[in-house]
Design goal:
Elements lengths: L2 H9 L4 H4 L1 H14 L2 H6 L4 H4 L10 H15 L8 H6 L3 E6 L7 E4 L1 H6 L19 H14 L1 E10 L5 E13 L5 E9 L3 E3 L1
Antiparallel strand pairs: 1-2, 1-5, 3-4, 4-5, 4-6
InterPro entries: MEKHLA
Organism: Triparma laevis f. longispina
Protein name: MEKHLA domain-containing protein
Length: about 200
């Protein structure tokens, strides 16, 4: 076999990488470095991202006193719950409150409220987003009426959860939150789970 034939045979041999290790490794190096990245792209979502929502609530004694005292004074009725814990864990009555920011922010949502709106992070969100855009004017009219008269106990309106599900609340009580100095510091609402109609 000629020298040229021997070299051709070597170049076509499956053992080329053994014959020219330095060249082969250099050729494979970029692929070897990038290959470990592939499993991370194909990996399934972490278990934490698949966890069900954790609905928790811890009503402070100060805010509980604000809710209950304001409710009793304005409606001349006892507040439905005797303790913060009872308010947090009610499975029959939704309780919410927001502050007096230009676009009010939720300051409280009991566990049932979080479940109804399908959002474990309601506190701090703008409360206007609990209603669809086309009914926010009606909601604003309600809040203005509450500001003027102190409370209403016959409110009905459509609300929307975090997944876009629509529901009607009926017979809701909405009242002003008044601090010890007589200043309005927010508004609150409560309504019975049995008065919710899914749309």
């Amino acid at each position: 076999m000629s020298t040229y034939s021997k070299r051709s045979a070597l170049n076509s041999s499956p053992s080329t990488c053994l014959t020219y290790p330095s060249q082969s490794l250099l050729f494979l190096l970029p692929f070897t470095l990038s290959f470990p990245l592939l499993p991370s792209l194909l990996a399934p979502p972490s278990l934490s991202s698949l966890r069900p929502p954790t609905f928790l609530s811890s009503l402070s004694p100060i805010h509980y006193n604000l809710l209950s005292t304001s409710y009793s004074k304005l409606t001349s009725k006892p507040f439905p719950f005797s303790t913060p814990k009872d308010t947090d864990e009610s499975d029959e009555v939704v309780v919410l409150s927001h502050d007096t920011s230009p676009s009010p922010l939720f300051t409280y949502a009991n566990i049932l409220a979080q479940k109804q709106f399908k959002n474990e992070n309601l506190i701090g969100l703008e409360s206007k987003y609990s209603a669809e855009p086309d009914v926010r004017t009606l909601r604003s009219d309600l809040l203005a009426r509450v500001t003027e008269f102190g409370y209403v106990d016959d409110y009905s309106g459509v609300r929307v959860d975090s997944e876009g599900g629509r529901f009607m609340i009926n017979k809701a009580t909405v009242w002003n939150l008044i601090d010890e100095g007589g200043e309005k510091v927010g508004q609150a609402a409560l309504f019975s789970n049995s008065d919710i109609e899914m749309l």
